[in-house]
Every structure is written in structure tokens, then in C-alpha cells.
Predict the structure.
Amino acid sequence: MTKTVYTFGGDAPHDDPRQGDKTITGGKGANLAEMASIGLPVPPGFTITTEECLTYLAGEKGFSDGLRSAVADAVAHIERATGKRFGDASPDGPGPLLVSVRSGAAISMPGMMDTVLNLGLNDETVEGLAATSTDERFAWDSYRRFIQMYGDVVLGVNHGLFEEALEIVKEDNGYYADTELSAEEWRTLVDEYKSIVASELGEPFPQDPHEQLWGAIGAVFDSWDTERAKIYRRLNDIPHDMGTAVNVQAMVFGNMGDTSATGVAFTRDPSTGTRRYYGEYLINAQGEDVVAGIRTPQYLTKVAREEAGAKPLSMEEALPDAYGELARVFDLLEGHYKDMQDIEFTVERGKLWMLQTRTGKRTAKAALKMAVDMEGEGLITREEAVARIDPMALDQLLHPTLDPEAERNVLTKGLPASPGAAAGKIVLDADTAEQWANRGDKVILVRVETSPEDIHGMHAAQGILTARGGMTSHAAVVARGMGRPCVSGANGISIDRTERTLRIGSREMKEGDEVTLDGGTGEVMLGIVPTVDPELEGDFGVLMEWADALRRMRVRTNAETPEDCRMARSFGAEGIGLCRTEHMFFDASRIRAVRQMILAEDEAGRRGALDQLLPEQRADFAAIFETMAGLPCTIRLLDPPLHEFLPTQASEFEELADATGLGVDHLKRRAGELHEFNPMLGHRGCRLGITFPEIYEMQARAIFEAACNVKASSGEAPLPEIMIPLVATRRELELLRALVDRIADQVFEEKGIRLDYLVGTMIELPRAALMAGEIAEEGAFFSFGTNDLTQTTLGVSRDDAGRFLGPYVEKGIFARDPFVSLDIDGVGQLVEMAAENGRRVRPDIKLGICGEHGGDPASIAFCESVGLDYVSASPYRVPIARLAAAQAALKAREG
Amino acid sequence: MTKTVYTFGGDAPHDDPRQGDKTITGGKGANLAEMASIGLPVPPGFTITTEECLTYLAGEKGFSDGLRSAVADAVAHIERATGKRFGDASPDGPGPLLVSVRSGAAISMPGMMDTVLNLGLNDETVEGLAATSTDERFAWDSYRRFIQMYGDVVLGVNHGLFEEALEIVKEDNGYYADTELSAEEWRTLVDEYKSIVASELGEPFPQDPHEQLWGAIGAVFDSWDTERAKIYRRLNDIPHDMGTAVNVQAMVFGNMGDTSATGVAFTRDPSTGTRRYYGEYLINAQGEDVVAGIRTPQYLTKVAREEAGAKPLSMEEALPDAYGELARVFDLLEGHYKDMQDIEFTVERGKLWMLQTRTGKRTAKAALKMAVDMEGEGLITREEAVARIDPMALDQLLHPTLDPEAERNVLTKGLPASPGAAAGKIVLDADTAEQWANRGDKVILVRVETSPEDIHGMHAAQGILTARGGMTSHAAVVARGMGRPCVSGANGISIDRTERTLRIGSREMKEGDEVTLDGGTGEVMLGIVPTVDPELEGDFGVLMEWADALRRMRVRTNAETPEDCRMARSFGAEGIGLCRTEHMFFDASRIRAVRQMILAEDEAGRRGALDQLLPEQRADFAAIFETMAGLPCTIRLLDPPLHEFLPTQASEFEELADATGLGVDHLKRRAGELHEFNPMLGHRGCRLGITFPEIYEMQARAIFEAACNVKASSGEAPLPEIMIPLVATRRELELLRALVDRIADQVFEEKGIRLDYLVGTMIELPRAALMAGEIAEEGAFFSFGTNDLTQTTLGVSRDDAGRFLGPYVEKGIFARDPFVSLDIDGVGQLVEMAAENGRRVRPDIKLGICGEHGGDPASIAFCESVGLDYVSASPYRVPIARLAAAQAALKAREG
């Protein structure tokens, strides 16, 4: 029969591998058993498995006879190990056994679930405790703590009632701290607490320690399913079906006088990563006092106390023996776990007890430093160092952040759509953003939601703030791509474009007023909050170098401007995976020619307008080729539906009418004709190239002329990879490859230069993935456009998904937002199929990914598993991708 | 070496199977050889293969030495067989060899490609011909015909110049018919023709017969690639890469006096199918005279002449010997080919020569009659009879058609979007359509384009006419589904909704004016043109019975109304494959409650509105269950995005504001919030059921209550199959199946009745197809929604595809419109994968198709090949589907 309860401490055996499996005994339970097994002082106890939690939650919330008898045996184990007995009220024995009951899931969810301490006290055992501890005050204080905690957590009594009663006693007596209450006053308060419970519940506070225990176990199980726990799990990608274990453990007391204490500590500084003990403790206190902040905890080490200029003695000074023992334990634990540990301990009358150890959370900066240091210390290998860093945590390091010391006046909060901090003057449209930025202002573009027309304004702005749209809205996606901080879907905003004013939260503001965004939290603040620049100092560089040495996949970037290219190269990009040429079309100086091209009645009209665009595009490409010298550059020909370029405002129509000599009505009619019901599935991508070949001809010419010019001037030949978007059939690629080859020949002839180049396609439609074998006959490379491939495979429009993605993740339909992390089962199946079929037909085909997923570690791991040659990410995600690629390669090597 | 030229007639062997392969020698060439091989009188000749045509067109348009020598040998064969020589001018031999040069593709393209007759004549041989034929007039007439035809076809001289010159001669002499010209006059005209050629081309008319021959061969090859030929192939789904063969054949002359004649004939009446010879002939004429209509041809048989009350003698009477020989050939050919033959013949001085035979085209009615008759005659089997009918041709029989005798005043022409004829008063919106129809008017709904809101108006109308949209626009698809005639994309229409007027072609009209549509041709006619009703008499029923006995797949229908259900049953539907419940939501009496439901701020508000809809939906379903008694009914729960139901007109907003007490601004804001960028990929399908479960609860309740009521009242239990749309994941179906099961249990409990029912899903997203194994764990059936599956797999919005589908088909990117005929390579791959994976997990899973493709024969054949259980088609397509399913089963049996 599968064991449901595991004991630890005392003489408990630790030979069942399930006890060390966090998915069975939870993180806390597994680590307590582990500590006990290596001889550390752990109060004896037992763990009820997560499996029992799931059984309990799935059924009628009762306990099986099997569990009841296993728990009875385990309680007997604690009694044996401590020599104390549950419910023992005798005044001259070892005193009653008291236990703590704590949750402990496989993945830590700090503060999310419930704990009960001092369980086992009742009207009789409290007297036994008073007698045996010879500390009546301690006994009654412990009892009132127990009633308060149990009343709140298990019985559901409003904890404010207890706090109020305590406050009255303190006020009546003029006390400031709880420690001032006498034993008698605590005893009176216990009576008060019991009557609160009785009047709230209509029945007395339970006196039977066994009844108390089962109540607490049930409460811990139930706490897995509270709303706040569910939300926490959703936010942290923790599955809902893991359940929590319950740890029942003999109480040890940090509140038994001045030789007792309790504390939390880290084996290194979790904020900077520096190798020195770090923590705080309280003399004569129980664990929750440290957390609750009722008393100010003291420093653990002398040096920390001195640095802070604090007076109260550090533990090193006040309890030198216990501290020495603790330091020994620190070193033992780091050596054992080979990582920085986060520890809870209690000193009971001079004796150290370990209550918890776990791998400690840390800042990104600390994580890097520790990994590099530990490698230097010989504690871990380079591979382990690389594997240990959460790639997403690097994001913190790569953007300017708000000065943590600065004051913040938060106006409203939206979604943290693109990380980093940005401050500047509010502007309400993209043109104003550009104008003001050109005259030297820092601006924040505020829109209801953005559209492709806003790109130039988004580029010009320091940050973007939208009233609507989610984490994957246009604003969010483009901002992340550009590395611009963005707060999206800030509901507290309403904009009056006519008056050029807006309301943020309760505050009326106008264009030009200053705000600051924190794209990492979603906060919108009044005025300019100072920021600090990222420091990509030593440890970052070292770890990245190790990662680069380990990874197999190349990392490219998605970039259109020389600035983005430069930034991406500084972040380690090894080429461009996606240059979206349409972003160049929105430039103010070009949009008129673009619109003329679109509105032209015939090919001749289109060619006239395209002739104006040719030199502009050529200059764009030349700048990119120069910046990316020697690296491959994948350039995607025009992709979006043409109507995205058309005016929407009346004033723009008038301006265009003036410029073209065509009437406003005519232009509006033409614009109406171009309207599409589902532009995502409309006249776009290579369909434009098929129906208006002159557009792709111009773009191909601009690319090849630029490449020839750069080669002539720099001597270094660019490596253009021309990408045909939205291909669904072999024939499309065949026709358009012929077009590109023809233009290449013309230009090479004209210039007297020949260059290597590739023509390939984006695999972004299910049909393209299904027919990849055929398509590979025509294309030298595939770049998986997983944004669009996700949209079509799942039938979900990214721009419209906001209405149901939330409920979909909540109800477990999607494990994660499929636009953030690749849907490996569905979309991944197509990617794998296409990669295999493509390689079957053309063994040397280049395979890469250029969707948003190219910067997502889980998706990158998938790309490694199907053997792609590279991933392409937005510039700020390049380091994340480098690290994730290395981790994926490591995992593949193991697997 | 592969043979490039095949001879026939004379002593030519016919043992090479390639000669009988129409893809190599073309239909005409293969049939000429076949006729010669069974001993029929065929003028000797040879065929140059289609392969040579493709080689010629792909290269520099020259002829290889191999071909030249093979043609020289083949000419020698003709010379041997006829005893005549090419270029022989001697006055006392057998006369010069003259040949015809004709195209002949594998699939007949009548009138599309070029022919040259009398080739071999020149200034010298014409004299030889005159002498040896002892008919100078004939010789010179033949020569001038040759120059005219060769000048036009090979040399590119405007044929109007020749006709003009002839007219002048006739006018000058006061002649009416060409036959009145004398030998001398023809000779003079030949001089005139030659100088026309010389002055147009700057060089004389070619005199060398071999040069003439090669010119004609090249011209025939070139004619494969003319614009008109390409268009014909596109319209008739003939591949562009087949090429044409060239047939060179000794000339025989129907214009050698009164014992000579030429004619065309069918072995049965191609219009009615009656078993009697049918055709026409001309005495003393060449083949093109019959076709050109210069002289009125005479009847072939005496009985036909008498029935028509015509005077000129029939061939039976005028040339009884030749006629007797012809009748013998007719019977021989029908017996040989086992099908009705379309024949060209010439009688030269009393001797019959066969110039062509091919399987004759026929009306749908005739096709049915012949198939049934021939089975009765023992000529063919039932299987052959069933295999022989083109399922699409049945469409002609199932709709009222315009009286062919009636006069037509065509105003404009659009696309033939849904077949049948309809006449009525113009109405410009759906509400007016309904009102006028309710008061008894027949109306034609005219819209720029239709939207789902127009459904009730489309139902009320006799036919639909739109100014925009293609063959697969909303109007076209819905109209075909309803069996309403529809002309879409009639560019000649502009509508002024304010004035309630419109312009059709050059004519100003107003609402209430009468027009007639021919949905089979796209014509829009002024006034009411009388129509004739379809007759589904004997042969139709017999053949359908045979088909039903042969097919494996069931045929269901897509229908929502009891009328459609009744019609579909009368057409043989065996259940409902798709009942789109949203069509019931647009009804005028319900739309207000639907809108209230959508605009409600919370669940309670939605439930209130849904309560109003429940009895209405229940009544709908009850009516359907009664009509389809005993047959399975697949009912799809609400599918489209909610904003499709919202008002668009200001007046509708005002009305709704009055009804709901909510302000117009509020309603418009709500409507704006519901706007989607890509509604096709938006908040629709089961996503509605997940986010607003109360909607699906109401629908499930309506279905089960109706089913229980019908069972109680009729004793016959309906077989509801509840279909969850747009599923992408197993979990969606799991959640919604649980919802449906829960409601079913509630209703069964309330009613005290239990019924069998199924819950399944539509496979209409690539992800659903990819994950079909998992999804089958939750669903009892899959219905392939290939409309949406095509949209998502190809990334093509049906509503927007009009802009590029044309060029896409033209450039060979799509072989056919993928919304009309399933993209078997791409979408079909997903269907097959899903069918296999679904059956692997659930061997008894029901599989069907309910997209538009369910009525397309090629797609139905595919469904048979992957083993689907049924296809579902719109009511008017049910007979087509029955026949196509039978043919598919036959093919599968053979394969």
C-alpha cells in the first residue's frame, strides 16, 4: 500500500525515495526529512502527502480510516522522540506535546496557505505547560496565540475580533508591546478569546487535541483551493492539480525567555549575491512575530549591524553559541544543496532547531553573482551555473528601472505589458509624439489602443500607455519588440482627443503633463520618477559567455532600425531573423507615397509611387547591412493588408486629397473598398506580391542595390535572406522566388557585382506546415512565424483574444497564453512536421523561429528539441534567448 | 524512342496503346484511330502528340529534326493510302493531296482552337485539282477558302478583309449566296486574297505545301495558349498543362456537287435523350458551312423534317444510300463506345467518310434518360449508368428555370452564384423584403452585399442580387444553402438607399420595380420573365434509386427551417448534418431579446433575456424534430460572434434604446466594445459557451424539452446530436459536454422521459484536427466544418478572398476555388489525420462533413476515400451528393 504519512526526526527512517520527492511530500516536508537525515537538529514530525490532499479535495472532504491510523502512528512517533504526550496536563512530566501544522506544496507559495502553531493546548494542558516550563506567562501567551490562529484559520472567526480584544487590554493598561502583558492578563484574554469563539460559532473552542489536529489538517488542505492561492498559481504558472502536503511537527519555542529566539536567514545575500550570511532574528519570540512585523527584528551578524549603525545586539553577539551552531549548519546546507538556502530556525533555551530550509529566491543580479561565484568556489559546474539562472529574470537587468529609493505617486495600474521604466510628457497621438520627440522632449504615448499606424510614434516615445488591450495586444507586442516599456489595459484612463485632455485614475491631466510608467508592475505615476540604468557588469558577461559555449542554436533578433540592430548586437544577436519592411512604410516622410501607391487605379500609378519609395527603402537596407556587417539578415517583404496604411482621420484624408488631387469622397470610397472583414486572413503577405508584383519588385531591387552598394563601399558582403510571407502553396513561392531572382540578376548586371543570397519563406499557415515538403523544393529556409501560426491553428485572433483568454487560462483550457508560450501540442506538432518534411526534401534547409515565442524559454526548449538552427527574438530578449538556448542544449544532452 | 506521330487509316497499324490514350493523341486523334481500327471509313492521316505541343510551347517554338522526319513519313503514309501526292499539279493523275489540320486536346474544347482545311493548294495544284476533279469552280472555291482560313489562322491577317472582298464581289454581281459565284469569279477573288495577304504581311502567300503544313501545325500548337483557350479551361476546370494534339488528315470534300454533303449528327437526341438519330447536313458544302450558319442546314431524318414542317429534303430522302451507311455506322459506334456519339461526317460523291466521333454533350435530362434507357437496352450496367451522370448537372433539374421561349431584356450580368430563376419586385433591405413577402409579394432582395442580418430577408425573397462579392460571398453561400437563386458581384449596379432607387446597367429603377434573375447565367433581366418548374419525373427517380443502392455514405442536409427540412427530405436527405441555431436568432420577433441578452451587463441580465428566447427555440426544434421524425439531427449550438446580432443602423439603435431603456450612446458604446478585428478568429463558437454558459444552457434545454415533447406527442423519439462548434482543445469539449449532460439530466428528470442523444464537435480548426485523438475522448462524433477549416488552414477569409482568388486560380496557385472544392492536399490532410486519430481512440465515432464541400462531387469522393460516414449538403444539393457518393463508392470499389 502506498504510504500516506512520512515521519522525520528522532529515529525515523529516511530510505523511501518518495519522501525525498517534492511532488509527494512537498518542498518543506522533503527538506525537513533531508535535514534530519544528515543529522541537523529538526524537531520530530511527519508529513501527510500531497496525494491525500487531492483525494480530500476531490471527495467529500473527509479522512479515510487508513489516514487516521497512519497519523495516529506518526503522532506516537513524535511522542516517542520528544518524550512528551499529546494532551498531557500533568504538572511534573516533560509537559504536553504541542505541534505546528503547516502547508508545504511542491513549489513554494509563500504566504498563500495556512499554518497553525501551538496546537495541543487546551484548558488543561496549558496548566501542564505552565508548570513544566516554569513560565506561566509563556504558557498562557501560547494558548491565546493558538486560539487566535486556530480561530482564524480553522474555525473562520474574523481575526479582527481577537486583535481588538488584545488592543483593549493593552490600552486599558497603557501597554505598548505584547510582551508587557502579565501571565494573569493573558489568562483573562484567553477567557475573552474563548467567549469570542463561542459566540461566533455557537459552540465552545475545541478542547480535544486530536480534534484540533484534524481540524488543522483539513484547513491546510482547504487552503490549496482558496481564491488567493489559485490566483497566485495562475500568475506563477503553477499547476492547479499538485495539491499541498501537511507537515505536523513538535513545537519548539523561541519565546521561552532571553536564551530563546527565532529567525530567518539566507546563506548569502539574496539581493546582491554577496557571500555572507544574511538574516534577522528576534529574541523571545515565535516565528510569526518576525514575519508580522510587530517587533523590529535584529541583524544576524555583527558586521551587518555595524554597517546599518543599529544598536540592538546581533545574534552573533547576543547568542554566540547558537550562532556558531547556525553558521555550521549554513555551510553544511550550502554544501549539501549546492545552492543558497533560505532558512527558518528557532533557538529554545539555547538549543538551535531547524524549522525549514529551501533554495532561496534572489534577484536576477544576485542569481548571476552566486552562480558565477559558486562555480569559482568549485561548488557547481559551469553547466549547473548556466542551468540555474531563470532566463526570464534577466529581463530585470536589461531595462532601466525606477530608482527604488524614489517616491511614487501612483495614479492607476494597468497590465505590466513590456518591462522597464519610462518617464515623459503625455502625448495623445503618434504624430505629436514624433514632433515633440524631434524637438528633444521625452514623451509617453497614451492611446486607447495602438494600431500599426502608431509605430512611428511608439518609436519616438519613451513608453506606451493604453486604456485597452491585454498582455498580447498590439501595443504590448510591438513595445516588447522595440524594448519600449508599456502599460496596457489601464482601465482607469479615459481620453478626450478633442480637448487633448485625459483622466488617469481620479486626476484630470492634459497633453504635456508628465507621467512615469513602470512596465514591470503596470503602475502609472505622476511626474518624473528617477530611474537607474542597467548594469551589465562582470557576472552577466561571464555567464553569457558560458551559455554561448554550451548552446547549439544561433540567436538572431527581430529588428528594423539601425538603432535596434546596434542594441541587439550589443546584446549578442548573431543576425537578423525578422526585418519587417512594412515598419519602414509608416515613416511620416513616406506614408504619402505609400498611400498614393495603394490608391492608384492601375499598375502604372503604383509604379510611379513605388519609384519614390525605392531610394528610401534602399537607404534603410543599406543602414541595416552596415550595422549587421557579416551577419545574415532575413528581410520579410511587405506583409500587412494595404488598408492598414490608409488614413483614418478626416484631416488625413483632406491632406491626402490635396496631395493627390483626388477628392476626399473618392479616397474614402477607395479606402472603403479596401476594407476587410478579417484582415488577418485577407489580402496580405505574398498575396500582395502575387497580385501587385511591382511592390515586391521594388523591395527586392532596394535590397539588392543596397547590398551591392554596401559591398562596394565596405568590402564586406551582406548576407540577405529574402523571406516571402504567408505562403500556403509551393506555387506562390515558386512564382515569387522567380521574381526575386529576376530582379537580383538585373541588379547584379547593372552593378557588376554578384552576391550570395537566399530566398525562403515564413511558415505561418497550417497549410504551409502541412505542405512543407513541397514548399522546401522552392525555399532555402523556413522561418516559423509562430504568432500567425498560432492565430490560424487555434483560430484565435491575437487582437480579439482578450475577451476569453483570461477565463480560458483560469478554466485550464490553456495552460498558458499561447501567444506568450508556444502551444507545443498543437502548433508545435505543425512546426515539428514542417521541420521534418522540409529537411527530408532539402537536408541543408535553414530553420528558425521569428515569432514572439523566439524569446520565451519554454518555446526555445521546444525549438531545440525539433532541431531548429536559430531562434530570433526582439533585441531585449536576445540575452534571454541565448541563455534559454544553452539550457535547452544542456537538457537535450541529458535527455 | 517515344513516338511523336501516329498514323491512322489506310494500312496504318493501331497496336500502340499510346495511340488510344487521349492524353497523348487527344480525343479526336484517339477516336479517329479507333474508328479506323474497327473498319469505319476514315480519311487517312496522322496525329502529332500532345507531348510535342508541350515541348514546342516550353521552348523556342521550333520543330525538332525528329519530328520533321516523323511528319515526313506520316505524309508519305497518307500519300500511299490515297494515291495522291502533296503538291501534285498534274492534270491527269489522281489530283493533289490536300489535308486538313485540326487541333485535338484530351478534353474537348469546342471552337476554342484552330483548324485549317484544304491545305496543299497553291497556284499550281489548284489547276491540278480543277483538272482532276473536273470541277474548276470547286477547285478555285477551295483555294480561296484555304487562303482565307490560313491567312486568318496561321498568318494573322484580319479575316474581315477577306469577307469584305467577297461581299464586294457579291454586291457587284447582285449575288445572295456564295454558291452563285462562278469559277472565274472565285479565281479573281483568289488573286484579290493573295494581294491582301501580300500587302498585309509584306510577303506573298506561301506556295510550298510543306511550308504551309508546318505553319498550320505551329498555329494549332499556339492556339493552346490563347487567352480565350485559357479562359475556357479555367471555366471548365481543364488543366493548363495538357497541351493539344494536331491531326493532319486527307481532305474529303462535301462540296463536290449534289452527291456530296457534310453534316453533324448525334446517335440520340442530346436535348431530350430520346433514342432517335438527330442531326443536320448540307448538300454540296464543307464542314465549316454547317457550323458558320451561312446556309441553313437540313434535317437528317425524314421524321424530323416532317415534324418541323420543313420542305428541303432530309438526308434520309436525298442521299438514301449514304444515309443507310451512316445509320449503320451510328449503331456500330454506339455499340462500340456504349454511349451516345457526336459525329462529323462528309459524303464525297456518294461515299461516306467519318471525320470525327466523340461522346456527345447532353442536357441533364437527356443524360438521365439515356443512362436509364441504355441500361434497359443492355448496353450498359446500372453501375455504368450511375457513373455516367455528372452530379453537378442535376443542379439544372432541381430549380425552376427560365422559359427558354420567353423574351429577355438583359440589364446587366453578374456572377452565376446560385442556380435557378427568380422574378419579383426589387426591395433594398431585408426588413422590407420580409414585410412585402408577408403581404404576398414576390420580391428580389438587392444589396451591395449581404450580411448575417439579412438572413430573414433572403429567406423571404425569391432571389438575391448583390453588387459586390464573388461566388463564395456571404450572399452566394447562404443563397445556395437556401436554394435561392442568386446573382452576385453584378458590377453594373449602384444603389441609393436614401432615395430607395438604383441603377442597373444603364437603367434607373426604384424599389418595387420588377426584375428577373437567372442564377445559372448571372443575367439580370427587366420585368417578369416566365419560368418553368423542375420535373423530377421517372428517369431521375430510377437513377437516384440505383445510386442509393450503390453508395456507402449517408447523405444529410444543412437546414434550419421546417420548410428546408421538408424539401431536403423530398430530395432524399437522411438526417440533418448541420442545423445552425443562430439563424433562428435573427428572426424579427426574437432579435430584440437576443440584443438584450448581448448587451446585458451581467449574467442575471443575460438569463432574463434568454428566458424569453427559450420557448421560441423550443418551438423551432420541435418543428424540426417532427419534420425529420426518426432521422438524426445534428444541432450546432450558437456559433457566430455576438456583435453580428447587434444593430448597425441608427434607427435600430433608437428602437433598441426605447425597448431597453438604455441610452443610444450606451448601446453604441457597448456595440463598439464588442467590435472585433478578426471576428472569424474571435469570441465565437464554444468560446461563447465557455464564457457565457447560460446561452448554451438555454439552447440545450430548448433541444431536450422539444425532443421530450415530440416524443410524448408522436411516440417517435428524435435523435438529437448536439454539436459544440470551434473546439480547439479536449478541455473545451469536456466542459461543455458536462454542461449539456447536466441540462439533459435535469430535463429528463422534469419530463420523466429519457432519450438517447450524442454530444460531439465540429472539427473546423487545424488544432482540433491535430488533436483529434484527445478530442475524441470527449466527443461521440466529428463533423468536419470544412468552410472554416479551409479559412484557417489556408489563412484565407472567405469574405475577403475575392480580391485575389481570381488571379490565384489563373496563375495555377489554386487548381479550383478551395471554398468550392476541398483543398485535398492541405485541408484534406487534416481531415484524414483527424478521422484516423478519432477512430483510433473511439472506433465507433461518427464522422461527417457539413461544409459547403458536402455538396461538391470531388470533395465527396475524398470523403469516401477517408471513410466518412456521411456528407451533409444544402437541400438542393442533396441529390447531387447522393449521386456523387454512389460514384465515389463505385470508384473506391474499383480502386
